[in-house]
Amino acid sequence: MPIYRLGEAILFPPVEHAEDGIVAIGGDLRPERLLRAYSESIFPWYAKGEPILWHSPDPRFVLTTDNLLVPRSLRRTMRAGRFRVTLDTAFREVITGCATTPRAGTTETWLTPEMIRAYTRLHELGYAHSAESWIGEELAGGLYGVSLGAAFFGESMFAREDDASKVAFVTLVEQLALWSIHLIDCQVPTPHLARFGAQSWPRRRYLEALRRAMRRPTRRGAWRLDPQEASPH
User: What's the pTM value of the predicted model, to 2 decimals?
Assistant: First the structure.
């Protein structure tokens, strides 16, 4: 199948035309295009020096809030209160941490300065959000993603302390459940997210769930934890 090259129009080809998960190439990272992409199950993912590549993998790795699994050891860590978790308090620091924290097996990052600027703009518009774990006043880890309707599209996470990003992730998922945001897109399989209950879904199942989620209103603006979620578990 052909790979479509995007022009100025904010349009994407049908995701069923994806070749090895790639839907299209080129375009830009304007907020309008990014939001259109996520609403159609598409996200940008490319390396420095490459044109923008737009992906919609099949199968899709997905977590629903009612399938969240929390290991007992992690639940004990959360109850101990070592980490203080916040939402949308340090978005720029979180996305920069995701871009710069070393990862096993690689020294490269797909989070280019262009990507950081684009998602920071989405955050300013109230569509991109972060969850942060703190030890005292030091940022220990966190994650960020985009939310539309009743879906949250996870993008990346990082940790400078053991369990920091995991605590932020579980706290966020439990808060999303309280807000009736039940669909969490994890994009591609990882053992880390599989341990939390994420599963591979066929594209058709994910698209059906996404269409239902897009019918719900979007919770825009700065997010804050509900009082019961802000305290240690």
Answer: 0.94
